Each structure stands twice: as structure tokens, then as C-alpha cells.
Amino acid sequence: MTALTDLTIAGARDCLRKGEVTATELTEACITAVEAADTLNAFVHKTPDIARAQAAAADQRLKAGDAPDLCGIPLGIKDLFCTRGVPSQAASRILQGFRPEYESTVTQQLFDQGAVMLGKLNMDEFAMGSSNETSCYGDAVNPWRVDDRLLTPGGSSGGSAAAVAAGLCLGATGTDTGGSIRQPAAFTGITGIKPTYGRVSRWGIVAFASSLDQAGPMTRDVRDAAIMLAAMSGHDPKDSTSADLPVPDFEAALTGDIRGQTIGIPREYRMDGMPPEIEALWSRGAEMLRDGGARIVDISLPHTKYALPAYYVIAPAEASSNLARYDGVRFGHRATLAQGDGVTEMYEKTRAEGFGPEVQRRVMVGTYVLSAGFYDAYYNRARRVRALIRRDFEAVFADGVDAILTPATPSAAFGLGEMAAADPIQMYLNDVFTVTVNLAGLPGISVPAGLDANGLPLGLQLIGPPWEEGDLLNIAYSLERAANFVEKPSRWW
Amino acid sequence: MSIDLETARKVAHLARIRVEEDRLPALAAEFNAILGFVEQLNEVDVTGVEPMTSVTPMRLKRREDVVTDGNRQAAVLANAPDAREGFFAVPKVVE
Fold first, then answer.
1. Greatest distance between any 2 Cα atoms in chain B
2. What is the pLDDT of residues A57-69, one digit of tens each?
3. Which residues of B touch A317 (CB under 8 A)?
4. What is the ipTM of this complex?
5. Residue B84: which region, alpha, beta or left (left: phi > 0; alpha: psi -120 to 50)?
6. B80/A384 Cβ within 8 A
7. Which residue of A lies nearest to B73 if distances are taken between CA atoms?
8. Which of A117, A413, A493, B15 is the most buried (most CB within 10 A)?
9. A100 is in which domain, residue-wise?
10. How many structural domains is chain B composed of?
11. Does some domain include residue B52?
């Protein structure tokens, strides 16, 4: 039998139900793995006591024969999710000491199913970053390594990606505003899906850009993503943007039969200077889907190049508004004030101390593009371009395309610190293939599809029409079986 | 559009983030890099295109206008850096 921590969620579910292993044994194996992996800095708040209590309760349910799919499955939770009584600080100093009095809808749903929480996972501060280097906890480290350099696991869900890839937990929650599930999944050789905007409740998840944020699962394979996504999804009266639609049985959609499906290859994603390896992987992915019986067609999404600039107006604008709540009054950090300081000094000092440089930069850019005189020129123009980007996708889907295949990232994982000297735009380019999907509110999934010449994982992205996660997962499942990516990082930590 | 020091100072104040004087030139340069990048949006013909308000076409749900939550003073104040006698405490606002 494989090591317990190497089990997939589906595999563990079946073992648990057959009584071949208990939730307690599985949880203890994960706690041991987490304890031995501090070098990766993936888990930033460990909750072994909660995990053991939840595992014991799961074993009771399993014994009683009342065991949903995730019953007894040890998971990691991104620090962006509010978890009752457990530090939840979005990797920011400004939420130092914050212990929510409430539980996010997603984690509540997972716990109601019997899932086990091992702890909170590292991330970029307020999910603003693509390398997990803006975290107040320090960098998370990619378990993949090819030389002396420590590599980024990507971001913002870097801790989630590192933990799942390193076998510390069976799955993890992530969130994705511009690529923050799919890019780290690609960098660590795991699967990550960002569902349709509105599929998963955002209630209790620290807000970054409310019209773009969606939570989703990060898992070892597509089947696990289907299982975990179903558990996270559904209408929530506490989130008025969550869709009141039935949640299909995503796992049942995984037939692997994609005959007759039409897959679009968008020509605008063939960027100048794209590494030949990425281009070759993309072509191989298309061949695999063709071999599976799909029809491959060239498509055009003409406004693709304007997605990143539109994103870097809209996301900071929404962030500046959302992050206005961090005022040093109701929760989190308050700066030590000097004699005679008033409320304005309290706000300014608290936010200067509490927010890191990238968060400050984005809040201020957002403030600028929303300020009188610039609102129309920047914010409204970006929202118009956003409408055109969505229209591009709508036209393609209306023409009969079932899914779109693209690379997930423009490169494999890079070294921690390597981008420190570059200007912020260079880091933003990491999301060039993923950000369009958030702007259009579509589901997108990253599937590991191969290794680069150095032996680092590369991912492919599939994009589907709204609410068609079932079909999208099935196409991803077919691609996964054809790519047969089985490599794992060898343990050095 | 070029951001000068005065604009950078003003934006920092609007955002209620203290930025020391010696940091302003670097901040203005970063703003200019980012705003220069988003200038590309001016190439797009957006005539007749409405700004997107909702990414998935949906009607916001309505509900009865009744109290659904409340009476949780202790929970609301539990995370306050300074709470006294059932209130959030802040520096004096009125002289």
C-alpha cells in the first residue's frame, strides 16, 4: 500500500469506507508530515488538536455508515478563509492576532462533510502576488527543486500548492482572483480549478477584488478536484453573488469520453518570446485531446492583450475599497500612537505598518484610478474593456466551442528572490494566461501535463463556458489520463 | 499621464497610508510604471460598450426587510485593539 499521505482523496475515501484505515490514522500521518516540513513554510498556523477531534468525529460517522465523500479527509485551508477561533490573517501583519468569531461558508461546508483541518496555509498578503513572496510569514517554498536554488510554489495560493504537492495534506482550499489557484498548481505539478464566478460562496473569505475572487480546490488529480469542488459549491444566502443553481455531481461527469467535443486554440495566446517548451507542451496537449476524439479548431479572442492592463485597474480599485476596512479600530493591528495623534494619524500609521509594500502599492493605485477626474479614464474604461473580453469568449462558445486549451503559465517555477529587482509589471505577467478567465467569470482548470528540460512541472489550462464545470472537468480528466503525469518531487526537506 | 510627487502624496493621504517624504519619488515612479502599462487600454475602441457591472448575468435576490442577525456585542468587540464599556475606543476626534 502507498504511504497514507500519498493517497488521493478518492483513494482515501474508499479506504476509509472499507475500514482499511481510520481517519485518525490518516490524520496522524499528515500531522507527522506537516511537522517534518517546516522548511517549506506551507503551514503557518497548525491546528493538530482540531484535526484530531475532527478525525475522531469522522471515524464515528464512518462507523455509522454516514460518511460523505470528504469525511475523514485531512485538508489544508488557505489563510484567507476565516476559521472560527483560529488565526486567519490573509498573511498580513494588519490582521495579526485576529481570530474570527465565525466560520467561512466554504470551511463550514467542508467541516459539515466531515473534513479534517490540519491548519492554515501560507499565501501572498491579501492574495496579492504570484510567488508567495509578499507574505508576512515569509516565503513558502516549492517542494520541487532541481539545483541549490529554492523555487517559488507560485502565488497567491503558494502554501496550498506546496502542501498538496509535498504530501502534507490530501487537498487544500485556494482562491483565485487573477490566477492564484491555477498558476501555483502548474508550478507544483498539481491540479487546481477556479469555478465559475458565483459557484462558491465568498462569505467569510477575506475580500481582495470582489468581482473577480472565487475559491476552489487544489488537489493531486482531477477526480479529487471534482469531489472537493462539489463539497465547496452551492448557493449561500449570505453571499448575494452566489448562484442559486443546483450543484451537479462533478465526479459522475468524469467519463473520460470527449468524442465530438470541440476544443479551441486561441491564437492570441501565442505570445512573443514564449519558451519553445511551453509551445511544444501546448501542441502536445492539443494532440492528446484530438487523439481522444475531440475536434481541434483555431479560435480568436481579440482582446486578450488588454486583459492584464484591465485587471490592474479593476483589481486594485476593488482592493482599495475592500481594504478600507483595515482601520485599526475593529480588528487586527493598531499602530502605537504618539501624544496628540488623532484618528487620521491612527489610520495612516496603522495601515503603513500593517500593509506590506505590494498591498500598499495596489491600494494606492486603486485609490488613484477611482479618484475624481480619473474614474472615467481608468476605471470605467477598464470595465468597458472587460465587457469586450467577456464578449470574445461568448462569441467563441456560441460558435460551438466546448472548451479552450492554453498554457497555464508562461514559464516553470522560478527561484525565490529572482524577481526582486524587476519592476512589478514583470511579476504581473505571470498571470497573462489566467487573468482573462477571472475577468470573464469563467471556470478554468490547470492540469499538470509534463516537465520542462530542467525537470520542473508545467501545466495546461482548460477554460469552459459558465456553469459547465462538469464538462470542463471531464475534458481535463481526459487530458490528465493522456498526459499521464505521475512525477512527484523527491523529498529533500 | 505622469504622477508627480504632489499627486503621490495626495494619493497616499486619500488611501490613509503614511508614506515618508523620502519614499515619495520611488512611489511616484512605481505608479508611473503601472499606469504606463494600463495606458494600453486607450488603444481599444469602446464606443457603445457599457461598463461591466456584473460578470455573470444575475438578478440580486430580494428578501424581507427584517432583522436577521444581531445581539452579539461581545463577539463584535472581541477582536478590537481597544474596546471599552461596550464600545470601540479611538483617539479623541472632537477637541
1. 58
2. 999 999 999 899 9
3. none
4. 0.95
5. beta
6. no
7. A101
8. A413
9. 1-493
10. 1
11. no
